[in-house]
Write a structure and sequence with these properties.
Strand order of the largest sheet: 10-9-8-7-11-6-12-14-13
Number of strands: 14
Strand content: 15-25%
Radius of gyration: 22 Å
Order of helices and strands: HEEHEHEHEHHEHEHEEHEHEHEEE
Number of helices: 11
Distance between the termini: 54 Å
Helix content: 25-40%
Largest sheet: 9 strands, mixed
Structural class: alpha/beta
């Protein structure tokens, strides 16, 4: 007999297989007589939800079975029909849910509908893990702003510049997997001019994120790798932008948005990115960009890859500093990965 935790952990693992942004990651497992008879996950926005996929993939009759899902089933019509109706019509007798949906259109209504149709409902199994899985969705649905993840590679002596690769290959692969899980990645113009990065997921499997460049005066070189066709690129600039360069970039099909007078207004930019359904934004640098996001308290989560080596020459990490709560520490190759949530001090 498989436990509730075992089945829910399987549902969460399935949910991690896809990036259905701006929808949440959802996985589903159907169990009957102690055996998993069907499972599925929400592959892409507009495609069938996890519950529908699991019901379609069942190996036997689901009547009387238990369904496990990491997020409350929907009960409204969107791009797809309500999952609650399909669960009820299939004859499922019990539904185990990790966490409710924070969407006002949904919260608790799916559960109520199941109960009204005499289906037993259990809520809260692996709830913490399920909330962390969809932390970007929960913020986005509440604020219409992207969840901001900051990734920093830092040397033992606190440098974030000074050589091409500070972190080891294993850490860089992990960072590329993080890129694949993000909708967009953002860097400043100095990083583009100095390093000429691709900002793709070439070291990991997965789609390339939208590339966002902060460039107040449109200094970006026309041969920059971020202007190639590997991924969509958005340049955020200001009213100081050179008009002829603005015209040339737009003629190339590059989207340029104006946010601010002299410096890019990050809060306005986040609002505009949210309007484009960018749910998760990864901040990679450089130093000025990191400083700006920290100073304005716009970081939701931070990941540091700390190298055991010293660089001596190079720029130090942000003067503003950052305190992390609920931090975890892991080894990745020869580096240490520290992951946590900023605890902003009030002044």
């Amino acid at each position: 007999m498989k436990s509730n935790e075992y089945c829910m952990r399987r549902a969460i693992k399935l949910a991690n297989k896809a990036r259905p942004s701006p929808n949440p990651k959802v996985g589903c497992v159907i169990v009957k007589n102690g055996t998993i008879i069907g499972e599925g996950f929400h592959k892409k926005a507009g495609m069938p939800h996890a519950e529908i996929e699991a019901l379609r993939n069942t190996k036997s009759d689901v009547k009387g079975a238990t369904l496990y899902v990491n997020l409350e089933p929907c009960c409204h019509y969107g791009k797809t029909p309500p999952c609650c109706d399909a669960i009820i019509n299939a004859g499922i007798k019990k539904v185990v849910i990790a966490t409710t949906d924070c969407n006002k259109q949904m919260c608790g209504k799916g559960i109520s509908k199941l109960i009204k149709n005499r289906i037993s409902v259990v809520v809260g199994v692996l709830g913490r893990e399920a909330k962390e899985l969809n932390e970007d969705f929960f913020k986005f649905i509440r604020t219409k702003r992207p969840f901001v993840l900051m990734k920093v590679a830092i040397s033992k002596d606190g440098k974030i510049t000074g050589r091409k690769h500070i972190s080891c290959l294993e850490s860089r692969k992990k960072a590329h997997r993080m890129r694949a899980d993000a909708d967009a990645i953002i860097v400043g113009i100095n990083t583009i001019i100095n390093d000429n990065p691709r900002l793709t997921t070439r070291l990991a499997r997965g789609a390339n994120p939208v590339r966002v460049a902060l460039d107040s005066r449109l200094r970006i070189p026309q041969d920059s790798k971020v202007l190639n066709k590997d991924a969509i690129t958005i340049i955020a600039t200001t009213k100081l932008a050179d008009k002829s360069r603005l015209r040339k970039l737009r003629q190339r099909g590059i989207e340029v948005i104006i946010c601010g007078k002299k410096k890019v207004d990050l809060k306005e930019l986040l609002k505009k990115l949210g309007e484009k359904d960018i749910m998760k934004l990864m901040v990679e640098g450089g130093k000025e960009v990191i400083d700006s996001f920290i100073r304005q308290k716009l970081i939701d989560k931070a990941v540091f890859f700390i190298s055991p080596e010293k660089i001596k020459k190079g720029k130090n990490f942000s003067e503003n500093g950052i305190v992390l709560k609920n931090a975890t520490i892991k080894k990745t190759g020869k580096d240490i990965m520290v992951e946590g949530y900023p605890e902003w001090k009030t002044r």
